[in-house]
Amino acid sequence: MKKNPIVAPSLLAADFTDLKSEMDMINRSEADWLHLDIMDGRFVPNISFGMMMVEAVSPLCNKVLDVHLMIEEPEKYVADFQKAGAEYITVHAEACKHLHRNIQQIHQLGIKAGVALNPHTPIQVLEHVVDDLDLVLIMSVNPGFGGQKFIFETLYKIRQLKEMLESRNSKALIEVDGGVGLQNAEKIMAAGADVLVAGSAVFKASDPESVIQSLKAIGNIPRYEV
Ligand code: DX5
Ligand code: ZN
């Protein structure tokens, strides 16, 4: 089946000293979403940026703002991220004691809700919430840092998830995050992904717009079986 990915460059790899130019590039490009990685130094061993960055970028960026919360107790902050401009908020299953409630809370804010799974977390944790989800984010590296190597095992997990979503008639999107680039995007899409997050592959490239364009064109080539 021919399908082009939703392409979501990750701001984490952008040049923070020149965000205006980076956002101009994103706006000119074929990117669909902008992915924002929020890290708290507790859930993950790194601190990135918070809602003030989302708020700063929001008026500069005309793409969908896709906020990935790698934080403990996300329920305390989701309303602030929505106010800052988030259109999708994704929480980690491993960080939520009350995942079902947290998903409801995001929906009550009038935006889309996603759940992220670390590489070791089985998709079965989604069994009783999957019907409520707009998105499932499959981590293909251990969260906390950009520029890591894609974990190959993830391809099987994407396939498993795709089967689960199909069997439940779910419309949730499968987003894949970590180590994604032109070298593996085709396989990731063939495994069942809908959204490709790419940080380093886009922002560290000499021609980021053409990388985005090539990622976007992935569905134009015949399906590749893994
Ligand atoms: C990792 C983040 C990713 C990161 C991806 O914890 O969730 O979104 O920005 O960066 P790359 O594409 O460089 O692996
Ligand atoms: Zn992310």
List the helices and strands and how they pair.
Blueprint: E1 6-9, H1 19-28, E2 33-39, H2 51-57, E3 64-70, H3 78-84, E4 88-92, H4 99-108, E5 112-117, E6 135-139, H5 154-167, E7 173-177, H6 185-191, E8 195-198, H7 200-203, H8 208-216
Parallel strand pairs: 1-8, 2-3, 3-4, 4-5, 5-6, 6-7, 7-8
Helix pairs in contact: 2-3
Keywords, separated by commas or semicolons:
TIM Barrel; binds zinc ion; binds D-xylitol-5-phosphate; alpha/beta; eight-stranded parallel beta sheet
Short description:
The chain is built from 8 helices and 8 strands, in the order βαβαβαβαββαβαβαα.
Report the oligomer.
single chain
Task: Summarize the amount of helix as a percent range.
Answer: 25-40%
Q: Structural class per helix/strand content?
A: alpha/beta
Principal-axis shape: globular
Radius of gyration: 16 Å
Poorly predicted sequence stretches spanning 5 or more consecutive residues: none
Number of domains: 1
Number-wise, the strands total 8
Q: Write down the CATH topology.
A: TIM Barrel
What small molecules accompany the polymer chains?
Answer: D-xylitol-5-phosphate, zinc ion
Numbering strands along the chain, what is their spatial order in the largest sheet?
1-8-7-6-5-4-3-2
CATH C-level: Alpha Beta
CATH hierarchy: architecture: Alpha-Beta Barrel
Sketch the topology as an H/E string, one letter per element: EHEHEHEHEEHEHEHH
- Within CATH, the superfamily carries the name Aldolase class I
Strand portion: 15-25%
Biggest β-sheet description: 8 strands, parallel
